[in-house]
User: What shape does this take?
Amino acid sequence: MPSNGLLCYCRAGFEPELAAELSERAAAAELPGYAKAERLSGYVQFLGEHGHALAQALPLRDLIFARQKLRLLAELRGIDPKDRITPVIAALFEHAAFGALVVEHPDSDASKPLAGLARSFGNALRPALRKVKLLTAQDDDRLPHLHVCLLDGDHLLLASGHPRDASPWPSGIPRLKLHADAPSRSALKLEEALFTLLDADERARLLQPGMRAADLGAAPGGWTWVLARHGLRVQAIDNGPLRPHVLDTGLVEHLREDGFHWRPSQPLDWMVCDMVEQPRRVATRMAEWFREGWCRYAIFNLKLPMKKRWDETRLCLDLFQREAQRPLQLRARQLYHDREEITVFAASERLR
Assistant: This one.
C-alpha cells in the first residue's frame, strides 16, 4: 500500500519524544500530518499528504530524537514469506533507479531476531532489483538509497533516503568499537558525537593538534582521552582521579576542582562536559562559558527526566541559548551510546 510521510528510527522507549518532535516541527512548517508510534518499537511514522515537503522541511541534522530519517514510500503487510521480492518490485514499479539498497530492522528487542532475515533478504533482493533496473549496477551516492525496514517476516516498510540527508549507517547506528586503552565506555559517546554532529571537513578544521580544551567532570578520563587522541591539550577538571595512562600522553593537566565553579585563566578552543546533574543546571553552566567567551566550541550532555523529555529538551536548549546572550550554532542528537540524555554541540561562529 503506498504511503506518504516520513519513517524515522529512534532509541526504543523514546517513540513518544520523537513523535512529539516530528509533530511540532511539521506544524511549525505548516505541513499537516500525524505521528504513528508504538512504544518500544524503535521507530515512528509521520504520515501526511506532503512527503517530499516534509522531508525537505525536517532535515535529519535538525532532528534530536531521530537516528535516521527517511521518506516513506509504501507499507506491505501479509506478504508471502516464500516470495517477498515480487510485492516489493510491484510497489516500486514506477520509481526511478535507486543508488543503493539497505535492508534493516528497528533497534528493538522485538526486531533483533530479524537480523538474519535482513541479511539474506538483502542478498536476494539486490540482484532482483538490478534485473528490473530499480537499482544501479554499482552503488551511487548521487541517487537516493532504497531502505527496506523489516517489521516482521510478512510486514515491511519501503522508504528512501538521500545520502546528503540520511545517516550512512544501517538503522542509523554507528558501530564503533571501544578502544582497548579507553578509560571508560563514555569515550564512545564523544567519539560518536564527533562523527554525528560534525562532518569530515568540520572535524578536520575544529580538532587540530595544539588546540586547547577543558573537560568538566573529567574522571575517569574518557572524554579527555578522546580529545588528547586528536592532539588537543586538555585541562581535566574533576576532584576524582583519572586513569594514569591518560596523563601519560603529556597533553593532559589534571586539576582537582569542581567543574561547576572552575574557570579558565584564558579563552580555550573547546569545552566538553558529561557531568551527571540536573539538565537545567548544566544548560545554565554551559551558557556561562559562551557568555563569558571562555570557549568557541562545546559538546555537552543533558540528562533528561523520565517524563516529559521532549518538553525538557526544548526548555533546556532555549534556556542555554537565551543565557548565552550571543548567537550560537546549535546541533543536538540522542546518540546510540546515550541513554536518558541528549548530546549538544554548540559553536560561537557559523560553520557553513
